Amino acid sequence: MGNQMKVGIGTAISRVDGREKVTGAARYAAEYVVPDMLYGVIVSSAIAKGSITAIDEDAARSVPGIVEILSHKNRPGEAWFDRSYKDELNIPGTPFKALHDSTILFSGQPVAVVLGKTFEAARYAASLVAITYQEEAHNIDFAVSLAEKFLPKKKRNTYHPPKTRGEPDKAFDAAALQLHEEYHLATEHHNPMEMHASTVEWHGDGRITVYDKTQGSQGVQAYIASGFGFSKKDVRVVNAYVGGGFGSGLRPQYQTQLAVLAAKKTKRSVRVVMTRQQMFTHAHRPECTYSIKLGAETTGMFTSIYGDATTSTSRFENNMEDIVTWGMMNYASPNAGGEYTVAPRDTYTSADMRAPGAATGMTLFEIAVDEMAYKAKVDPLEFRTINYSEIDAMNELPFTSKALREAYREGAKAFGWSRRTPEPRSMTDGRELVGWGVATGMWDAQFSKTSASAKLSANGHLEVACATSDIGTGTYTVMTQVAADTLGLSITQITAKLGDSDLPTAPVEGGSWGAASSGAAVQLACQAVGKKLFKAAKGLEGDPFGAANFDDVEFVDGHMKLKGSDVAGVPLTTIMRSSGENSIEAEETASSGISGMISMMKKARNTHSAVFVEVKVDEDLNVVRVTRVVNAVAAGRIINPKTARSQILGGVVMGIGMALHEETFADVKLGRWMNHDYAEYHVPANADIYDIEVLFVDEPDPEVTPLGVKGLGEIGIVGTAAAVANAIYHATGKRVRSLPITIDKLLELEK
Amino acid sequence: MPTLTASRPLPAEASRPIDTIPITLTVNGSVRRLQVEPWTTLLDLLRDKLDLTGTKKGCDHGQCGACTVLIDGRRINSCLTLAVVRDGCAITTIEGMATGADLHPLQAAFIEHDAFQCGYCTPGQICSAQGLINEGRATSRDDVRELMSGNLCRCGAYTNITDAVMDVLQAEPAR
Ligand code: FES
Ligand code: FES
């Protein structure tokens, strides 16, 4: 019997796709070699609103190597109805259709694609396309757009309206302690490192293969089929490697439309890659203003919570987020309520970005909570436990599990919170002020119907497959580990396949449901293979399993054996041989089922976290450094502590960006984003990041999802920026209510 | 509102075919004689002409470091250099880091420390780290953090990247 290293669920193995990634062998959307391919370079609109009156292509077409220039004037026919362009997110409104007509809806809108035999020729020719526009009045200033804010009649189906309890207004008026402040979050852009790209391979027989940067291959497949006149079986979408998403690849992006249209027009293979600047012309986190009213007793007990928030959207779609509900769910207060509206501006539609809604709403709320703690003269951590709610206080539902108390306790211990002195400006290190802040994070634990297949070959190799995506989330590794765990195999005996619309059905990767859902599906498929093996083992010579039932056997070290027996059992390869089959395979679907659906109505399912942050502030320069973070996370069962930790690290780093760096500035005169590149839009660099410690608190939860997994993609960012803001207040005594907290805002408060 | 016209006179050279220039590069140890258009960057040459797509494009403007390669042992942003300028140079890309099946110590350390998530910045990080080691300036974590800051990682793997680089840096014989 081999002395195998344990590799199953709960083990910190290295990423199974690591070798491909560190050797450069992993291919992303723009890296597939397709013969005779044209390079497409996008021409972006110079105005924010109006229409195109003329396009002069003469100069561009005279560049040697230019094959075609596609615009609204000569694009091939596309579907007529808006509903043909609906994607999985189904945002209410009119989905954007690239090159549809002469109308300009936002600055940077794609207005033409230049197709050339080389990238360089296409890029040069694109600079020569001369476009004449008729401009109309536009607005991208969020503050101005608030005059038009409204609650859409047709809601986004992920939207949860705030449920009022008690009489929040009355209770606020009567409260001993009152806080009423405005909080704000700037527009942010996702900026995954890989720019959005599509390589369309034109097979010439009606079929296309699209190598696409997307978080969901089958969503893009369905979208191309319904919008661009293909039969679904003729469209294959591949996204085996995705260079980050953070939500920017949840909806098919416009480069996919352009590449498909261009391939149809030229009947050739086409690649279209956005520039980094063009990455600022689509998905972005909505700007948000959030007015928070809190009432409390002198002890710090909340008596009233009230929030009124508005987030930005476009003029053609109503993107909605849950902003005000998080505080209402997380804290016990007899009275609570909220309002929410969207404000339209002349940009592309805002989009889901890592923990959409919570990263904004929970984070801003946690700054207000800190302020109230100071008003009540209660330690901010203590304040949160005073107002702790054992149930989802808004929906009045118990949780399947909530180990937030443990997260507070273990996080505080690891951080050394007890050594904190309460007064602002009371801690220093040399010439720097030191501040310690805390905040709470909360996100949904979701599950989404997913299918997977498993195929065991005669040589003992197992292949598991699912159309899900790995956007850096570790899905390849999770699938491999679950399979190893279920059938007792080693990692090297398993291949995980994903990122291909041909594989068993999976939803778009987002909302942190990937591991819980694809993991559960892989487990079911492997169990089904196990059962088939058990049947086949009945034919073994000597009938080693005799009268045993399937429940009496287990899979260990490549063997099937009787549970509790010291005997190694029978190698799976032996069973395969005796079965006479070349392979045994099964496909299964994991869904929440009836009992799961009932449980979903009766219980809330969430992840929680406690984030502790240390900042050091140089007061002469108002430079803030986040020198230490402890993030204690309660997220159910952890399949792989190593990749799980990385997910949280990534969320924390983006949270530090939200707190200190990330902000897309509007040039309100031109109607476009000013700082549309990596030099001017600051994301944290290595030097900005010091120590980050991640803790996973024990939270067994067999009810939340089949594997007890809650998901980790988003929780790391939620609350982090609030903990930074609160630490800055503790260090400096300056309360900044608008994120990011840049030097100018701290300087302003000095006056 | 006014009509906005982009008036662009036809540049005289627009329709002139581009002449190619012969250059010789040693790429990952093999000598390549190439005919290159002068407007081709080293990055696009590697990715589009030589199918060495391990070198990534994250901005094309020298702002992200995803395109970092080693030229004669020094790290540079390959998006910021025209290929013809590098005639005669020895270039190492991520595809040239491992020795056969044996990973380069940095590659192994990146896997061990989970110093990436999506993997898109990773080839640039690894080449940059080798450049950093060659420079011989970094001795501490703070040095590494500072001197690796030309390589952005949107997945936020920085602490793990620093751990991985420190491992290899400390294993290096002292200079
Ligand atoms: S692609 Fe060269 S620095 Fe970004
Ligand atoms: S690993 Fe994704 S950008 Fe660094």
**Helical residue percent band of chain B:** 25-40%
The biggest chain-chain interface is: A-B, 82 and 72 residues
The description of the largest β-sheet of chain B is: 5 strands, mixed
> Please, what is the average pLDDT of chain A?
95
Structural class label of chain B: alpha+beta
Please report the total strand number of chain A as a whole number: 31
Cα distance, first to last residue of chain B?
A: 67 Å
Radius of gyration of chain A: 27 Å
- CATH H-level homologous superfamily name of the largest domain in chain A: Aldehyde oxidase/xanthine dehydrogenase, molybdopterin binding domain
Structural class of chain A: alpha+beta
Low-confidence stretches of chain A: none
Provide the number of structural domains of chain B: 2
What is the overall shape of chain B?
globular
Strand residue percentage of chain B: 15-25%
Main-sheet strand order of chain A equals: 3-5-1-11-8-9-10
| CATH fold call of the largest domain in chain A | Aldehyde Oxidoreductase, domain 4
Strand order of the largest sheet of chain B: 3-2-6-4-5
The arrangement of helices and strands of chain B along the chain is: EEEHEEEHHHH
What's the Cα radius of gyration of chain B? Answer: 19 Å
Annotated CATH homologous superfamily of the largest domain in chain B: Beta-grasp domain
Architecture overview:
The complex is a heterodimer of chains A (about 750) and B (about 180). Chain A has about 750 residues and is α+β, with helices and mostly antiparallel strands. Chain A has 3 domains: about 20-25 and about 450-590, Aldehyde Oxidoreductase, domain 4, CATH 3.30.365.10; about 40-135 and about 195-245 and about 250-280, Aldehyde Oxidoreductase, domain 3 (Alpha-Beta Complex), CATH 3.90.1170; about 170-190 and about 285-445 and about 600-750, Aldehyde oxidase/xanthine dehydrogenase, molybdopterin binding domain (Aldehyde Oxidoreductase, domain 4, 2-Layer Sandwich), CATH 3.30.365.10. The model of chain A has no long low-confidence stretch (mean pLDDT about 95). Chain B has 2 domains: about 15-95, Ubiquitin-like (UB roll) (Roll), CATH 3.10.20; about 105-170, DNA polymerase, domain 1 (Orthogonal Bundle). Chain B has helices at about 40-50, 105-110, 120-135, 140-145, 160-170, and strands at about 5, 20-25, 30-35, 70, 75, 90. Chain B has a 5-stranded mixed sheet, with helices on one face. In chain B, helix 2 packs across helix 5. Chain B is globular, with a radius of gyration of 19 Å. The model of chain B has no long low-confidence stretch (mean pLDDT about 95). The chains are: A alpha+beta (about 750), B alpha+beta (about 180). At the A-B interface, helix 1, strand 2, helix 3, strand 6 and helix 16 of A face strand 1, helix 1, helix 2, helix 3 and helix 4 of B. Strand 6 of chain A pairs antiparallel with strand 1 (about 5) of chain B.
